[in-house]
Write a structure and sequence with these properties.
Layout (H helix, E strand, L loop, with lengths): L5 E7 L12 H5 L2 H11 E4 L4 E5 L8 E7 L20 H21 L6 E8 L19 E8 H6 L18 H5 L1 H9 L6 E3 L18 E4 L9 H26 L12 H7 L4 H16 L1 H6 L7 E6 L5 E5 L14 E7 L1 H24 L4 E2 L9
Parallel strand pairs: 1-11
Antiparallel strand pairs: 2-3, 2-12, 3-4, 4-6, 5-6, 5-9, 7-8, 8-10, 9-10
Helix pairs in contact: 7-9
């Protein structure tokens, strides 16, 4: 069987939402009105911390697919002022967020125990306010949210190979800026982080054989497997990976923007950045290369996301081990594409209706576990009750 990224088709029920005249869809999706619809038509559970579990109406997979969003739509009306990554979430909210993640991931692994049969993943995407709302590729809901997805590997095997030149598949491979020009600097920087549960993977050992992805991304094996997700230490290390990435990204693009710039404000690891980045010739040489091109190429300069853009994943590899990875220089790709799965979503109400009962049964089962753990209360919709 040929290894390579796959393109699958996933059906959805057309959403009966009307975008007000004069608004672009991604502007409307960030509104309190749209989030209100999300709660009442697709909401599964919500809690006083503002975390909402919901069924993905435009899903990646009809096997298992849901999200948790930090719903600040009515408390922070400015879409550009909302928390968009874990490091911006209040500690008391993050504690609940982490427990919800742990329970949902544990359910997925229990319900789908065989790594040969299913690809299981969970993770978040950066939704930073780095582009105008109307720019292509800007997230449709500018609030922090996690994805929980299961793909049937038999369907992936039967799916056609995706176009290798699809720009959404080049995030961490040979086209990545960090991978192409600063690989050694990037890896050495991460090696200095204080990690005990997360152990660096050897090159290639964490790839999904079916797709050949992830490509070129730093990855860490979770020592202790799913049980480790019950430890506070794991989630602190998960945050450490993100904070280290943010420091690297911000420091690099600050140097691109301004030659010989000082450390960015609110850096997480200032001594590490100073020692490993600000005095590294390869790092600064690459910044000069990008800066010189920005000066001469307006289109290239306009495409850069000056603030941290990333996807961070927990997924199960072919050996059944849990792996953490983080993208290097996101260009708008979906979270599934880091693992080589391109999803083409098509409106097909009949096909979705056939898959819906089994999907909802699993979503309600995981909701019951969250309610039992005092992580929220069920939401009643036209499709299911509150209990």
């Amino acid at each position: 069987m040929q290894s390579g990224p796959r393109e699958i088709t996933n059906s959805f029920r057309p959403i009966p939402l009307e975008v007000p005249e004069g608004m672009k869809p991604n502007e409307f999706f960030n509104s309190a009105e749209n989030l209100n619809d999300l709660v009442h038509n697709n909401g599964l559970l919500q809690n006083p911390e503002g975390l909402l579990l919901y069924r993905k109406a435009l899903g990646h997979s009809n096997e298992f697919d849901c999200s948790i969003i930090y719903n600040t739509s009515q408390s922070i009306l400015d879409p550009l002022g909302r928390p968009v990554r874990r490091t911006q979430v209040p500690e008391q909210v993050k504690n609940v967020w982490n427990r919800m993640n742990q329970i949902i991931i544990a359910y997925m692994l229990e319900r789908y125990p065989n790594p040969d049969e299913t690809l299981v993943l969970a993770g978040e995407a950066s939704l930073d306010a780095t582009w105008p709302l109307t720019s292509p590729g800007v997230p449709s809901i500018r609030m922090l949210h996690n994805h929980f997805i299961v793909f049937n590997k038999a369907e992936l095997r039967d799916a056609p190979l995706a176009d290798l030149n699809n720009p959404n598949l080049t995030d961490g491979g040979q086209h990545s800026l960090f991978q192409s020009y600063m690989r050694a600097v990037y890896r050495a920087f991460f090696d200095e982080l204080d990690l005990q549960i997360l152990r660096p993977c050897q090159d290639g050992s964490c790839k999904i054989a079916l797709t050949g992805y992830p490509q070129g991304l730093p990855s860490w094996e979770v020592q202790g497997g799913v049980e480790a997700l019950q430890e506070v230490r794991f989630w602190k290390e998960y945050d450490t990976i993100l904070m280290g990435f943010i420091d690297f990204y911000r420091t690099f693009f600050t140097q691109v923007s301004t030659r010989n710039a000082a450390l960015p404000r609110d850096i997480n690891f200032p001594e590490l950045v100073e020692a490993k980045l600000q005095f590294n010739n390869d790092f600064l040489k690459t910044a000069k290369m990008v800066r010189d091109r920005c000066i001469k190429d307006a289109k290239y300069a306009n495409s850069i996301r000056w603030q941290p853009a990333f996807k961070q994943l927990i997924y199960r590899n072919d050996q059944g081990k849990l792996i953490v990875t983080i993208s290097q220089n996101s260009i708008g790709n979906a979270i599934t594409e880091l693992l080589g799965v391109v999803v083409k979503r098509t409106p097909d109400a009949d096909a979705y209706a056939r898959a819906e009962p089994a999907l909802i049964e699993k979503l309600l089962a995981v909701r019951r576990r969250l309610v039992e753990a005092d992580l929220g209360e069920g939401i009643a919709t036209p499709h299911w009750g509150a209990a």
